[in-house]
Amino acid sequence: MQKLLDTFKALSDETRLRILKLLEHGELCVCDVVAALDMIQPKVSFHLAV
After folding, report:
1. For 26-39, how does the pLDDT look when each residue is reduced to its tens digit (9 = 90+)?
2. What global pTM score does this model have?
3. Coil, helix or strand for 27?
């Protein structure tokens, strides 16, 4: 049950949902996600690590 709660908590973040939307059509490298979201690389990497 805790794993399910953690998953939904991670998905409740707007940035992570935006990343998922980008990835629904296929794989992207971090640099592509950074460019698409106009964010800095460390912040994108943080969200991907969750």
Report:
1. 999 999 999 999 99
2. 0.81
3. coil
Read off the tokens for 33. 């996600």
C-alpha 11/C-alpha 13 separation (Å) is 5
Tallying the residues shown for the chain, one arrives at 50
In 1-50, which residue ranges form alpha helices assigned H by DSSP? 2-11, 14-23, 30-37, 41-49
Q: What is the DSSP letter of 15?
A: H
Tokens of 17: 């949902």
For tokens 């707007």, the residue is: 14
Closest CA to 20 of 46, 49, 48: 48
